[in-house]
Amino acid sequence: MGQERVIVIGAGMGGLACAIDLARSGFTVTVIERAAAPGGKMREIDLGGVRVDAGPTVLTMPWVFADIFEAAGSAIDRHLRLRPLDILARHAWNGSGQLDLFCDVDRSAEAVGAFAGPAEAKGYRAFSAQAQGIYETLKDDFLVQQQTGPVGLARRVGMGRTGDLLALKPFETLWQALGVHFNDPRLRQLFGRYATYCGSSPFAAPATLMLIAHVEREGVWVVDGGMQRLAEALARTATSLGVTFRYGAPVVEISVGGGRVCGADLADGERLEADYVVVNAGGEALTHGTFGPTVQNAIDRAPIAARSLSAVTWALHARASNFPLSHHNVFFSDDYHAEFEDIFTHGRLPRQPTIYVCAQDRDTFEPGAEEAERLFVLVNAPPNGDRGAWDERDLAACETQVFARLTHCGLELDRSRAASVMTTPAQFHAMFPATGGALYGQSTHGWSAAFKRPGAKTRIPGLYLAGGGAHPGAGVPMAALSGRLAARRLILDHALTRRWRRGATLGGTLTRSATMAGAASP
């Protein structure tokens, strides 16, 4: 091997992981990225020399990245310093107190009990045990394996483990399942929020998603210097293995010839030839023609109604006071059902949004009263950034509502002299074409949604898919796993093709030899 050329389109987590695995397996890999740096949705915003994480801010499952570096002959601690957070997240309600969660079940149960009573603490323990059971059932048989259907999953788990399969509770919504464990609506809100990690509503997503609670309970880490350092470390590792990176180079068409992919055309007219192409982008980029008409039918086209959440965000460098911010903070709305009804049913910004605030300096120092700190503020929004210009009045009203709500919850942000950048669904759509600004691929609504997510292999030979929109799903570690699955599938297909070609060549040689022998016989 070594002459087989692979183009990876997109230097997000999936593309980087895929490039590393392919390069160490002997392929000649070129990564083509339309942006100026690696990371994909993992991006930074420069506020006058202060860089603020403005994409994913939560790092879980670091073993995924440790495995990637180890497989490449390195170690994660040679490239990055990861620090576990003591407080997973701080949660607040207007006038209804605060609740911190921790990795330790006993410590969190004690906090829940102090917040809502002993019965809710007992419910939390039962919820945690169930979340852990779901995660352990799916980790090895679904999350790190190629996409499959319900029957395939049952076979992997084993028909003798019917109880484990039923415990996944795919036919219950997350909100319904939470009602079994918690009477306090605030706790249902808190644990229902895990559905938004997949861009979904807790009122429509399956109870299976409670596994995310266990993933977070296994630890949340901070990357020294910001999340972008993870992308840079992966890119450096890929480069050390011989991967070539081309930044600022949009791909306008994936070439197909002889029934399989054969390269890619860049916006400047350059054509790159390849034996394989991996698309590290949302499946919508294929089906909506972003990469040309010849690959539009490579996967099934998902309906617009299946889009996941978008967001309106603010990257700030501002002074914060009166509220004891942790690194991750959530300020809940008064009416959770109305919030998701606004987004998914009415396609509008929520009138009372839940607000996430990432205080990116709080894990390293406690800012003084006059010190500005790096803040990232996010509210969920409908994925309709491709449906005309957003009304500036709606955005202004949303901004007013968001920061007024934070004030009501006790957090004062002095924005009079603050550097600030807002990002809307329309801008996310421009950054990630054909998505409408959806940030998590398809939503996970309904019991079968996880099985409808596209897998690594497409209908076109030589064309593969990776990224948060592909199996196993959204999130930093999941996107990386998708890249590894794409590499694994490509390597297997290549080996099978070589074996078939050797067999065909040998068969032809034997046939010719037999013919010649027959002709020479007396």
Structure description:
This protein has 16 helices and 19 strands. With 522 residues, it is α/β, with parallel strands linked by helices. The chain has 3 domains: 5-42 and 58-81 and 224-304 and 441-499, FAD/NAD(P)-binding domain, CATH 3.50.50; 104-218, no CATH class; 309-431, no CATH class. The strands form 5 sheets. A 7-stranded mixed sheet has the order 7-6-15-16-17-14-18, sandwiched between helices. Strands 9-2-1-13-19 form a 5-stranded parallel sheet, with helices on one face. Strands 10-11-12 form a 3-stranded antiparallel sheet, with no helix packed on it. Strand 1 (5-9), helix 1 (13-24) and strand 2 (28-33) form a beta-alpha-beta unit. Helix 1 packs parallel to helix 16 (476-520), helix 3 packs across helix 4 (118-143) and helix 4 (118-143) packs across helix 9 (211-217). Mean pLDDT is 92; it is low at 510-522.
